[in-house]
Amino acid sequence: MQALFEDVYRILPTRITPTKYSSLFAVRPEGNLLFSCLGGHSSIEGSFDAMDELGGVALHLLGDMHFAARYNDDVDARFGVTTMCSEVEGPDVRRKVGNVGTFPFERHVLAPGVVVIPTPGHRPGAVSYLVDVGAKRCLFAGDSIYHSGDDWMCPVSKRNRKTMLATLDLLADVDFDVLLSNTGANNPVCFIEVDAAGRSDFIAGLKKRL
After folding, report:
1. Distance (Å, whole) CA 18 – CA 43
2. How many angstroms separate the CA atoms of 65 and 114, rounded?
3. In what helix (H) or strand (E) does residue 138 lie, and over which residues does it extend?
4. This prediction's pTM
5. What is each CA distance from 169 to 12, 119, 182, in whole angstroms?
6. 147 to each of 22, 92, 143, 187, how far by Cα in Å?
C-alpha cells in the first residue's frame, strides 16, 4: 500500500505486471472505502492485513464491470462486505463476482459523505464517487477518467463521445479538490489536485482530447 495523502492509499496488486491495475482505499471515521480494480488477475490479498490494521472495509465499490473479477469475492469474504456497483453494470459484474449488490443509476447519497455520480461514456453504467476524506472532497473516477502514462484522458469510442462530453459537462459543476483514478499498476500517476480554476482547465483539456 502506498500513502497518496492523508487517509488515502493506493493498493498495488500482490504481483505487478503491465496488464494489472491499482485499487484505492480511503480511511474514514464513518467507515473505510475500497475502490478496487481487480480485473486482469489483480489480486490484492497481500494488502489485506494492512487494510485490517487501518480498520478494514465498510464499503467495497466498483466504478464499472471492468473492475470485476473473482478476486472481489476474496475481498468480500475477508472483510464481510458486498461488491457494490450501479444497477446498470450489475448483470455484467455478476458474471464474474458472486457477492454483488446494486444501487440506482442516479445521483444519490450512498452513505454519509459518499455521493454516487453517474458518469457514463466509458461504460453505460459507470459511476464515480464523491467522498469527503478529511478536509478534501475526493472524486474517485474509476477509469472513466484515466491517466495513460502520458496524459489524462477519457477512454471512449467515437460512438460514445457525445455521452462522455455530457459527463464532463456534469463534472465541471462538481466541487472536488482531488480526482483519483484506477490507473495501471506500473503508472505512478493516479490523482490530480485542483482548485476551482484548475478543475475547469482540467475538464476543458479532457474535452479537447476526446
Report:
1. 14
2. 20
3. strand 136-140
4. 0.96
5. 31, 10, 21
6. 12, 25, 9, 8
Three cell numbers at 112?
454519509
39 pLDDT tier (thresholds 50, 70, 90): confident
Residue 25 DSSP class: E
Instruction: Count other Cβ atoms within 10 Å, centred on residue 204.
Output: 12
Interval 117-159: pLDDT, tens: 999 999 999 999 999 999 999 999 999 999 999 999 999 888 9
Instruction: Find, among 27, 20, 59, 26, the residue nearest to 43 by Cα.
Output: 20
Residue with cell 460512438: 159
CB 32 within 8 A of CB 18: no
Of 69, 66, 13, 67, nearest to 35 by C-alpha is 67
Q: In the predicted model, is pLDDT for residue 114 greater than 90?
A: yes
- Cell, residue 65: 464491470
Cell representation of residue 88: 446498470
Strands lying side by side in the sheet with 59-61: 2-5, 8-11, 23-26, 33-35, 59-61, 83-86, 100-103
Q: What is the C-alpha separation between 142 and 148, in angstroms, rounded?
A: 13
**Residue 183 corresponds to which amino acid?**
T
C-alpha cell at 133: 476524506
Amino acid (one-letter) located at 114: V
What's the distance, Cα to Cα, between the start and end of the chain in Å? 32
How confident is the model over 79-94, as a mean pLDDT?
97
